[in-house]
Design a protein that fits this description.
The structure is a homodimer. By secondary structure, the first copy, chain A, is an alpha/beta fold. Chain A folds into 3 domains: 5-137 and 308-328, NAD(P)-binding Rossmann-like Domain (Rossmann fold); 143-305, Dihydrodipicolinate Reductase, domain 2; 347-429, Alpha-Beta Plaits (2-Layer Sandwich), CATH 3.30.70.260. The first copy, chain A, has 14 helices and 18 strands. Chain A has helices at residues 15-26, 28-35, 67-72, 89-98, 108-125, 142-148, 163-175, 179-188, 197-200, 203-217, 236-244, 308-328, 365-375, 404-416; strands at residues 5-11, 38-45, 63-64, 78-81, 102-105, 129-130, 154-160, 227-228, 247-257, 263-274, 286-293, 297-304, 342-343, 350-359, 380-386, 393-399, 402-403, 420-429. In chain A, strand 9 and strand 10 form a beta hairpin. The first copy, chain A, is elongated and about 85 Å long. The N and C termini of chain A lie far apart (57 Å). Chains A and B meet through helix 2, helix 6, strand 12 and helix 12 of A and helix 2, helix 6, strand 12 and helix 12 of B. Chains A, B: Its EC number is 1.1.1.3.
């Protein structure tokens, strides 16, 4: 039997794209055996062509700066998009799908921004849209959530999905360094970009959280629905304070079903988690995600969250699937939004706070502080008073669970107390 | 649009089967939304019918003792097999597939014994055969290996895939108990069966290893190919010895590609792993599996490895997939054996040994022992001599990497040395 050939347009040829092209050549026979058809690079769209583009086994003639024309070509069956960002990626993907081409992308920003519209277009045109690489790099996560757990009831997804911030927080925890110092080191080592905003302000993690929540809870969730706080305000004192209570500060993405199941909560923020929690042990730029489901219980997925080679593994895994579907003349499970749950505002989220207060060192302070908590219905778990602070005292309060709006209103009122000189730090406590 | 209905025959209604039936009723709407068709229980085959079979929402009339007739019924579209064991499960599955019904099973013994023939039959009859629940309970593992990593090159799968033995070894490590005592406790708590042979002698783990190796390396591997050693010979002294060198004893399933990639090694045996290794921290009856792939790097999958509810999650996830495929008129990726690698004999496996010897306490002993190692080309990493042993000495040798046949020949010769009174323990060292 002569094997048919599927022709692939690769959009983008940076670190990830060139790795994909390289592997498509190197593992050509394996990929063909797994797909049931040969995969051939029809063209590679780049911003600038030039001789530095040489990839062994790839015809230099197939590079082009006209991505739109490449996507429109009749001899292109499948499109792999690794340009990133919203435009021109969105337009190219839409154009590809309109012409009946299945798409594999690693584009988290786009999927988080517009996943619903993209999936709707994929359904309409009868094509596949796969994007495992968009969340947690090489870790198989979206497919297990979408398919392996399709017979279960996912209640929570909680994880470390941004390697840059995890590297920075890990450095702060291990070496006691400050945020600026740790960021500088991460930049020097290539773990953080020159403009680190997307990572350190939590935008990258929030995009991933939106994608995860949408899939886990069968409801449309976009980036705008995600409560987002970054790590740029995390201080060496916060990390030390966490250490003192046997915890570690991590940037968490948390997607959860509200009790009753009618709403979804999606948030990204730094949180203290106990040192015994498996996520506490996730070092450097690794990613790890917990999934809690009614029947399966607690599952954890762990691995490298970024990098050209891991990302290419995820993209090529998707490419094999969409190619195999194309050979069979079918599409895989598309977007699933039937539950259509509302997104709960952050204020309704039930969590715990760890609050450090710089207070006057005199009788009655604790009573005043406790009164504020009681007034908002927030129950205190522990209070620790450190009087060795020069000219005053430090009060560290850890609360029981309460709605975020009550906790946050408590903090606002504490800040106004005469006896409270400064609210030094407020961190949520998770993972218990 | 009126939704079509797919009718499901459930074979077996023990812990797992009754949980599946219960959830099919309880989550009927969710499952329908995910499949695109309603799933309906057509019949449940049991050994004995009776009123103790009552499952809320399930018509008692659909229970039958005639599994063969149920499978043959024209109004059955899909078959779920949770009887376990080789026969009658094999015959029923074959009959179902011959009649064009897709099958979901949790049957590791059968798949390990005869996976190739079963997949061949599935392909021939154009049906699906899915069995995520057969390995590591609820942990999505087979699907990620088969699909998510389809664009990558898996080099190693290493994990804890039997909860019973992990519970026993964990008890021995935590409380210093002996094997018999820990087994008895596991039995009392329901973690081990009255006849614990399949678990403690490694048959269960070996079946899972065969399945994992076949999928990971695209080659037929059956139970008979797996080198298997159980944990019944693991003593409190072994566990203490491991502790002394900062390690812990775990029953590991290891599937690896030989250097060069032309052969596959598959083995199950107790091994010492460093306490810092993530698998060392897997407690109780949990399972965890490392997957190493050329591009993805090291991935870990962790979760409950057994139990009715977790297993039902995996079965129902597969059921959604095969049902959805049936609606679309297609089948998913079937067995993939194109690489057809040979299985390497255990002797060729490269590993390390930890050997405890009871020796005479006199000069020249170490020289004699070292000569034996050298004669087999086995390089020693560390030797520790404990002379506080009454009337003699204990010599603990940890080797560098060497082929298992050289290591095992070394041990045989050591046992014959005049100065060696007893070879007290031999354990492989892995995970470094």
């Amino acid at each position: 039997m002569r094997m048919s050939t599927l022709r692939v347009a690769l959009l983008g040829c940076g670190v990830v794209g060139s790795e994909i092209a390289r592997q498509m050549v190197e593992h050509s026979d394996d990929l063909a055996a797994r797909v049931g058809a040969r995969l051939e690079l029809a063209g590679i769209a780049v911003r600038r062509t030039g001789r530095d583009r040489a990839i062994p086994g790839v015809d230099p003639e197939i590079f082009t700066t006209d991505a739109a024309a490449l996507v429109a070509r009749d001899d292109v069956d499948l499109v792999v998009e690794v340009i990133g960002g919203i435009e021109p990626a969105r337009g190219l993907i839409m154009a590809a799908m309109e012409r009946g081409k299945s798409v594999v992308t690693a584009n988290k920003a786009l999927l988080a921004d517009d996943g619903f519209a993209l999936h709707t277009a994929a359904d309409k045109h009868g094509v596949d849209l796969y994007y495992e690489a968009a969340v947690a790099g090489a870790i198989p996560l979206l497919r297990p959530l979408r398919e392996s757990l399709a017979g279960d009831h996912v209640t929570r997804v909680l994880g470390i999905v941004n390697g840059t911030t995890n590297y920075i927080l890990d450095q702060m925890d291990t070496h006691g360094s400050g945020f600026a110092e740790a960021l500088e080191e991460a930049q020097a080592l290539g773990y953080a970009e020159a403009d680190p905003t997307a990572d350190i302000e939590g935008y990258d993690a929030a995009a991933k959280a939106a994608i995860l929540a949408g899939i886990a809870f069968h409801s449309p969730v976009s980036l705008a629905d995600v409560h987002r706080e970054g790590i740029s305000e995390v201080t060496a004192a916060d990390v030390a304070g966490a250490k003192a209570m046997g915890a570690v500060v991590k940037l968490l993405a948390i997607c959860e079903l509200a009790p009753g199941g009618e709403a979804v909560g999606v948030r990204v923020h730094p949180a203290m988690i106990p040192r015994e929690h498996p996520l506490a042990g996730v070092r450097g730029a690794y990613n790890a995600v917990f999934v809690e489901a009614a029947s399966a219980g607690q599952l954890m997925f762990y691995g490298p969250g970024a990098g050209g080679t891991p990302t290419s593994s995820a993209v090529l895994g998707d490419l094999v699937t969409v190619a195999r579907n194309r050979v069979a003349g079918v599409t895989g499970p598309g977007g699933s939004w039937y539950a259509d749950r509302r997104v709960r505002p952050m204020g309704e989220t039930v969590t715990r706070y760890h609050i450090s207060l710089d207070v006057d060192d005199r009788p009655g302070v604790l009573a005043a502080v406790a009164t504020v908590f009681a007034g908002h219905g927030v129950s205190i778990e522990t209070v620790r008073q450190r009087t060795e602070v020069p000219d005053g005292a430090e009060l560290v309060v850890v609360t029981h669970q309460a709605p975020d709006e009550a906790l946050s209103a408590t903090v606002d009122e504490l800040a106004k107390l005469d006896t409270v000189r400064e609210v030094m730090s407020v961190k949520r406590v998770e993972g218990e």
